């Protein structure tokens, strides 16, 4: 049944839903989720502070149960239940959430570990000094009041707030269709920024950032870069990268620990530890042996123990990439301005606070002015009465009632009703002469105050002076140092940041299997030793290439077809010493039939040169930068003649000297300057005029501090000084490099070595030896060499490489007994005839025009 005054209106459901949802969303925005730009508080936070102020819970008062505070807040101002009020009260007391806490809690208020607080019946609280600054002058008519929910009392719509709370403590809230995320700032910096804005209202945001460089979180941490800060300060929205602060500590036994002392804002320690533990179990994070929490009353301390030998920088970068130790913090400066949500830049937030403080001070001044005028009015009446006190007493004594006395006094002395009432309420002790002097002094003081109040009301400069004075007082009382460090811009993580840089041995087998292995797996031996198993390969396969490179290097793969491919060393699978490796065809798009003949590790493609040699003695020089754009399918490195193959590629500086060595033991030395630089897609020029049936087996660069090492297929080798090889013009037939016989076999390869180097030699059956170069003494050219490694009759040398000692030190090296068969196999002819034959000038072939 409808009442007589009720009616039914027909409405479209779409319109009703739209209006109802809009009403609901505005209620959430204004009454629940967003802070007021003036005091930086949401209604629930403001009501808690007002309720505590009503209870007289100042910084020096005794603590009261949080149940009492929550009950009064809910019963008097916020009718949403104590269970809703208490979590808000707890957050106001948490030092890791509030940059300047507004509530001083006693008891268990939770922890940065994510532990919940105790029940409200067990905890106590009172206001802090900072919150009292926000409530200061509340009773001086500085802000508007409105009836509470049941109209039994009034509550303030905003607090006077000397403290710029919105900026220094920040705010977080999710409304309907919008959210706010204002970061906390340092009070000292904000005060300096406000003072600068007062001095120059036209100040730019860039200039303000000289005073307020960025957010200052209560948990510290590191902000990487200022571009996100600048964007947020200019537009009201932006993103910043926040990192944990960490350092390394050396432990006993050579172990290293990463110690985390500051974590990103609103991230719990428990979450960090759990994430690290899970990633270690999954294998995403390697090199970590233990994680523990050593935090105490002195501060936060998370310790991540590393495994021995792991790079702490790489592990820390992985922690930043995969765990909450690095987080992106979104800045959204949305607050209520005149009751409406608005996105604010830094200057606008400061301006709104100053506008609020100007309103508060003017209202306070007006209140004090009215009080002073009222008091002056009474004092002037009292002075009149004392001046003729006998007549006043006479009038009062003749009057039959108070109203008659009041009227008589008003008529006799020209007084107002207020003044007459004050005279009637005056005590007899005020009739003494000293009281008259006090009244005269009070009148003078009141006149001075009224004059001062009028000046403040009329001049904005005086109001700003008061604001500035209040701000610097806050700075002196509560200011502290910056906790969050601002560093340079953080670039996106590269894969190199997550890979430890170290020297590794890279091996490639004849069948095309590649792997990388730590150098420490190979213990040092004397020459002639038996070696260790270097790889577990099939009978028909053998190791063909072996070199040492950094994990951050590129590997340029040159094939016998004259093409080049790229691969990062860290992309090569790291396997054990006896592992076979992974097929290159699965890692590079090398066509069937092509074989990798040379691999060059390189860090950057700069203005150095790349020189190449072919089986038929052709050489080519091209600037290295021409090869700096890798393609999946490779690119042309050199154009080859029919039947020719690319056998070697090396990096040079443009002025080196080159030695080409052949399978039959001949060599030629010529200057790199004789080879002009050509483009990438060219043939090259003649470097060596080969004898019938011979072919080039190696190319090296001359180093005056090194010697030439020549290795033959039967395990023999020799070192010879470079001075034994005279400089010739390219294109000649060369001179004898080594005597090749059935005993030592054909030449396998050539290399430049020093005394402090080591050799790693691999046979076609997979046997490997690592031996110091110093064990080989330097001998002449016309020799057969000495035994480098003992092999079975069916085994041959597959590959060898030089290992520089400075690249890797092996603490576990254990020299073995020197080989017995290590005497030099020199020529029996001591007359020097052989030397004359070796030094015989061969006819050098001139290049034919157009052959290049």
Could you characterize what this model shows?
By secondary structure, the chain is α+β, with helices and mostly antiparallel strands. The chain has four domains: 27-163, Topoisomerase II, domain 5, CATH 3.90.199.10; 245-324, Gyrase A, domain 2; 356-482, Topoisomerase, domain 3 (Orthogonal Bundle); 501-838, Neuraminidase. 28% of the residues lie in helices and 24% in strands. The protein has 18 helices and 41 strands. The strands form twelve sheets. It has a four-stranded mixed β-sheet. The protein has a four-stranded antiparallel β-sheet with strand order 10-11-13-12, with helices on one face. A hairpin with a 2-residue loop joins strand 15 and strand 16 (340-343). Helix 16 crosses helix 17 (460-478). It is elongated. Mean pLDDT is 84; it is low at 806-852.
Summarize the topology.
Layout: H1 13-33, H2 43-54, E1 64-65, H3 66-76, H4 82-93, E2 103-106, E3 124-127, H5 129-135, E4 145-147, E5 154-156, H6 165-169, E6 171-174, E7 179-182, H7 187-199, H8 205-208, E8 222-224, H9 227-235, E9 237-243, E10 245-250, E11 256-262, H10 269-282, E12 288-293, E13 302-306, H11 312-322, E14 326-332, E15 334-337, E16 340-343, H12 346-387, H13 389-398, H14 402-413, H15 417-424, H16 433-458, H17 460-478, E17 485-487, E18 503-509, E19 513-518, E20 532-533, E21 543-550, E22 554-559, E23 563-568, E24 582-583, E25 596-602, E26 609-614, E27 618-623, E28 635-636, E29 646-652, E30 657-662, E31 666-671, E32 685-686, E33 696-701, E34 707-712, E35 716-721, E36 735-736, E37 747-753, E38 757-763, E39 767-772, E40 786-787, E41 797-804, H18 833-838
Parallel strand pairs: 8-17
Antiparallel strand pairs: 1-3, 2-3, 4-5, 6-7, 8-9, 9-14, 10-11, 11-13, 12-13, 15-16, 18-19, 18-21, 19-24, 20-39, 22-23, 22-25, 23-28, 26-27, 26-29, 27-32, 30-31, 30-33, 31-36, 34-35, 34-37, 35-40, 38-39, 38-41
């Amino acid at each position: 049944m409808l009442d007589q005054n009720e009616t039914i209106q027909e409405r479209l459901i779409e319109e009703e839903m739209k209006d109802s949802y809009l009403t609901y969303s505005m209620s959430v925005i204004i009454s629940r989720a967003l802070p007021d730009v003036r005091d930086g508080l949401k209604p629930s936070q403001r009501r808690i502070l007002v309720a505590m102020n009503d209870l007289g819970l100042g910084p020096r008062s005794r603590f009261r149960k949080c149940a009492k505070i929550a009950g009064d807040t809910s019963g008097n101002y916020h009718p949403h239940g104590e269970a809703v009020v208490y979590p808000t009260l707890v957050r106001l007391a948490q030092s890791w959430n509030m940059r300047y806490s507004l509530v001083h809690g006693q008891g268990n208020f939770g922890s940065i570990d994510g532990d919940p607080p105790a029940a409200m019946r067990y905890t106590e609280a009172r206001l802090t000094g900072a919150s009292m600054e926000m409530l200061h002058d509340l009773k001086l008519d500085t802000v508007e009041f409105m009836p509470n929910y049941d109209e039994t009392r009034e509550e303030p719509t905003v607090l006077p707030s000397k403290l710029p709370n919105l900026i220094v403590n920040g705010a977080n809230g999710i409304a309907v269709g919008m959210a706010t995320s204002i970061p906390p700032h340092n009070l000292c910096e904000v005060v300096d920024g406000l003072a600068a804005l007062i001095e120059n209202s036209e100040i730019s945001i860039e200039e303000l950032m000289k005073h307020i460089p960025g957010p200052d979180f209560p948990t510290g941490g590191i902000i990487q870069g200022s571009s996100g800060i600048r964007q947020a300060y200019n537009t009201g929205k932006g993103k910043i990268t926040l990192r944990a602060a960490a350092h390394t500590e050396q432990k006993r036994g050579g172990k290293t620990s990463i110690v985390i002392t500051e974590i990103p804002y609103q991230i719990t320690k428990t979450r960090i530890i759990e994430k690290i533990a899970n990633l270690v179990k999954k294998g995403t994070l390697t090199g970590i042996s233990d994680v523990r929490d050593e935090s105490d009353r002195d501060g936060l301390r998370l310790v991540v123990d590393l495994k021995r030998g792991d790079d702490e920088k790489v592990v820390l970068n992985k922690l930043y990439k995969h765990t909450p130790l690095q987080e992106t913090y979104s800045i959204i400066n949305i607050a209520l301005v005149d009751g409406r949500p608005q996105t604010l830049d830094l200057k606008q937030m400061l301006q709104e606070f100053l506008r609020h403080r100007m309103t508060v001070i003017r209202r306070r001044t007006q209140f004090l002015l009215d009080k002073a005028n009222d008091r002056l009015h009474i004092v002037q009446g009292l002075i009149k009465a004392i001046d003729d006190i006998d007549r006043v007493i006479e009038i009062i004594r003749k009057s039959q009632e108070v109203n008659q006395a009041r009227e008589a006094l008003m008529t006799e002395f020209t007084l107002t009703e207020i003044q007459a009432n004050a005279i009637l309420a005056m005590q007899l002790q005020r009739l003494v002469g000293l009281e008259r002097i006090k009244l005269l002094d009070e009148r003078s003081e009141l006149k001075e105050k009224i004059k001062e109040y009028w000046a403040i009301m009329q001049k904005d400069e005086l109001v700003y002076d008061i604001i500035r004075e209040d701000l610097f007082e806050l700075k002196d009382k509560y200011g502290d140092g910056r906790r969050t460090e601002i560093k340079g811009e953080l670039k996106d993580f590269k894969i190199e940041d997550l890979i430890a840089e170290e020297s590794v041995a890279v091996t490639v087998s004849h069948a095309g299997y590649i792997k990388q292995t730590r150098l420490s797996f190979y213990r040092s031996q004397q020459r002639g030793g038996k070696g260790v198993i270097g790889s577990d390969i099939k009978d028909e396969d053998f190791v063909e290439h072996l070199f040492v490179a950094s994990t951050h290097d590129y590997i340029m793969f040159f094939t016998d077809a004259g093409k080049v491919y790229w691969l990062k060393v860290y992309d090569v699978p790291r396997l054990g010493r006896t592992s076979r490796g992974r097929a290159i065809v699965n890692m590079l798009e090398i066509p069937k039939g092509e074989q990798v003949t040379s691999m060059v590790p390189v860090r950057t493609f700069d203005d150095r040169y790349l020189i190449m040699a072919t089986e038929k003695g052709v050489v080519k020089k091209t600037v290295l930068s021409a090869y700096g754009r890798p393609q999946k399918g490779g690119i042309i490195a050199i154009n080859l003649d029919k039947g020719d193959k690319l056998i070697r590629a090396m990096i040079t500086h443009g002025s080196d000297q080159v030695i080409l060595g052949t399978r039959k033991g001949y060599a030629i030395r010529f200057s790199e300057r004789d080879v002009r630089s050509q483009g990438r897609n060219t043939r090259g020029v003649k470097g060596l005029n080969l004898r019938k049936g011979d072919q080039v087996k190696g190319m090296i660069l001359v180093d005056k501090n090194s010697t030439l090492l020549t290795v033959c297929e039967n395990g023999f080798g020799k070192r010879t000084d470079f001075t034994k090889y005279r400089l010739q013009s390219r294109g000649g037939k060369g001179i004898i490099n080594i005597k090749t016989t059935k005993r030592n076999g054909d030449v396998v390869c050539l290399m430049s070595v020093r005394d402090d180097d080591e050799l790693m030699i691999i046979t076609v059956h997979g046997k490997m030896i690592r031996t110091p170069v110093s064990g080989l003494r330097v001998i002449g050219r016309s020799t057969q060499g000495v035994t480098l490694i003992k092999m079975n009759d069916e085994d041959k040398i597959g590959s060898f490489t030089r290992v520089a000692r400075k690249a890797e030190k092996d603490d576990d090296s254990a020299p073995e007994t020197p080989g017995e068969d290590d005497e030099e196999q020199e020529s029996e002819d001591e007359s020097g005839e052989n030397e004359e034959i070796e030094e015989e000038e061969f006819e050098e072939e001139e290049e034919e025009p157009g052959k290049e």
